[in-house]
């Protein structure tokens, strides 16, 4: 195996070029076999095997810096930098991350996970390099999907005046997670298919070069001037017009070609885009046929690509998807907005049935939110479905464009709480804090699948900014009989005793049921309230509970700071209520990757740990 010879950075340079196709094939086989056991981002990684090999061959790591946008496609980079063994524990607790991590390797230059950051970070490196008089290369690798994110354009705009080398590799596979969307995607498509142009450009350059004495000089002049020869043939060359040299398109599965263009790019004094065409899922039939399904996959059977285990129970996303379909039928004003996540958020069904009322805006959470504000003013009821950690991007848009104008926008916030194997970058730890501090915003969290449905109906009938946050994965189907009508700012008594009150938000109601059983076994009297609203909190229930409970334990899957528990504690202290408050929430640190159950134990949010802390408090 040639792959066995790759044990540390730059080992690839010892492999003869003729053996590269074999090495590429071994890397693919390795990825398919490993990910069939662990799961992970297969399709994107299969697509960049040759591109990564080419980059590693023309760059010198760790001196040179490669920045992977989103970072979900960095697996070959990990293999080529001596981390092949890490794949056994890929995305597992304390195992190798699925994203670049500076703490994992000197060859990882920037931690990513969220999209469209690579050009900004790369440009920062370049400025640092130049000011310090250093001499390394910087390459940002950005996908066509990530290039739909506004931040990438802010950075390109900034990079256009650069006078020193900065390589931006545009990995264009025509796909985001789903099909890529928007004008830029179309524009790239035009370039991709402009073979006539490519051929013409080559032949003009060749002919000029052949002209003795004047030819090469003209070619050089054309290359030097901003008005490149390309513009004669392709009107409005977007990147070149901005002042960024464009090279390509090049077949990213042809290593020699890719290396040749990258070597050309190294000579450019300024920012240069290398447009590389690749195929998502390359080399594994099921992934080529279904790149979206294999974007991020659970373990699967290699022979047919079918997942080896699938949960039988509906997820919260499934419930959201079903309710949205019903809204589609029943309320023509309801429209759906996603930022490039129709699959992940469950909006695909709505898209298929009501395409005119479905908007995929690309990886553009900020735009999605302000766009929704416009939709609301245009007389529609936008439901904006965004993962908790990605909505962080649009904090100001939620404040300035939605809440300040008190607009009726429904935020369906999926992946709230700990998400598992994606780790720090994707945990939904902050939304209760960052949303509940905004005036006019209402924030809800359902205890189970029926309540998610009820809350969505409530939110669509409401008037004003309103958010519902729910976790990744299986929806809780306990407590079915508790289905009191939803009323603004009102919680729900599930068990009413006295002594200890468990006051739980959303996903923590299920945990609270278990905690209560444990405490009951120890002889305690324990009440349980499902908070339902994190903003406004139910002050009435808190005041009432203070009369016959000595301890209120708040439970939430959100950081303590600014979260549900602190709002409850504030209510108790401002009203001088005679009751102690214990807050159980996520810690003030970034929570790493791993199985969610294990992570709950690690942060002390599992039933046993919470029960133990209550017993200790009661013993005082
Ligand atoms: C801010 C943000 N929004 C959404 C996502 C989810 N996401 C991860 S990868 C991806 C698609 C990226 O497409 P592209 O850059 O073309 O890479 P490819 O998967 O095609 O290799 C999306 C939408 C994210 N990581 N960050
Ligand atoms: C890389 C990325 O951001 C997405 O692919 C993410 O991993 C999807 O997460 P879910 O599996 O929770 O949809
Ligand atoms: Mg892509």
Describe the protein in words.
By secondary structure, the protein is α/β, with parallel strands linked by helices. It has four domains: 3-194 and 234-285, Thiamin diphosphate (ThDP)-binding fold, Pyr/PP domains (Rossmann fold, 3-Layer(aba) Sandwich); 196-233; 316-469, Thiamin diphosphate (ThDP)-binding fold, Pyr/PP domains (Rossmann fold), CATH 3.40.50.970; 492-619, 3-Layer(aba) Sandwich (Rossmann fold), CATH 3.40.50. The chain has 26 helices and 17 strands. The strands form three sheets. A seven-stranded mixed sheet has the order 7-6-8-9-11-10-15, sandwiched between helices. A five-stranded parallel sheet has the order 1-2-3-5-4, sandwiched between helices. Strands 12-14-13-16-17 form a five-stranded mixed sheet, with helices on both faces. The chain is globular and about 90 Å long. The N and C termini lie far apart (64 Å). The protein binds thiamine diphosphate, 1-deoxy-D-xylulose-5-phosphate (DXP) and magnesium ion (MG). 1-deoxy-D-xylulose-5-phosphate (DXP) binds next to loops. Mg(2+) binds at residues 144, 173. Pathway: Metabolic intermediate biosynthesis; 1-deoxy-D-xylulose 5-phosphate biosynthesis; 1-deoxy-D-xylulose 5-phosphate from D-glyceraldehyde 3-phosphate and pyruvate: step 1/1. It catalyses: D-glyceraldehyde 3-phosphate + pyruvate + H(+) = 1-deoxy-D-xylulose 5-phosphate + CO2. Thiamine diphosphate binds at residues 72, 113-115, 145-146, 173, 284, 365.
